Amino acid sequence: MVQYKLYYFDVRGIGEPIRLLLHYVGQQFEDVRFGKEEWPTKYKSKFFYGKAPVLEVDGKQLGQSTTILRFLAEKFALAGKDEWEKAKADEIINFQKDANTELAPYLYVKIGLREGDLDKLRVEVLEPGVKRIFPLFEALLKESGSDYMLPSGLSMVDFQVGNFLYTFTKLEPDTIKAYPELIKYVERVHALPQLQKYLKLRPQDR
């Protein structure tokens, strides 16, 4: 039996879509979480790139969050139904990562990871970014013709995008309320029966 071990910080972050996928498919894995104090002394040197998350499969390490997610999605038939959908999945995930980079200066200050003028960042980063990004997510959802980001239904994309948008339902509910279809989408992903046990026990919800 294949043994999986996932290493990541004790937050949702970029490791959470991987956790969600593994829980959704019912794959047992060791969820190794650590704090930022432990990272430089206990874990960083263990990994080839010195970054997390890292998935260990029977002792072999795989790095880079999107690569890990795609590897597991291929294994568990959640990567898209054909070549075109797989390409669209990559496209949407890369768009989400760009969106995260664009909005990160505000979000990092909001959760206390960095110092900065939150009001200024709201006006200069959050508001224009959301006005550009969120309608595109809505359009992708509508274009798919399903309740998820790909026409064939649930895929790895939904764990990635759903986790990203979930952050706004917690940190910026007044911002995302202008996009009710995205709120419904987040709720739909997080209402999947296979995730309920994990979500009720999830250590960090921010």
From TrEMBL:
It catalyses: RX + glutathione = an S-substituted glutathione + a halide anion + H(+). InterPro entries: Glutathione-S-Trfase_C-like, Glutathione-S-Trfase_C_sf, Glutathione_S-Trfase, Glutathione_S-Trfase_N, GST_C, GST_superfamily, Thioredoxin-like_sf. The keyword Transferase applies. It is an enzyme of class 2 (transferase). The keyword Hydrolase does not apply. GO terms for molecular function: glutathione transferase activity. It comes from the Eukaryota. One of its GO terms (biological process) is glutathione metabolic process. Keywords: Transferase. Belongs to the GST superfamily. Sigma family. This is glutathione transferase.
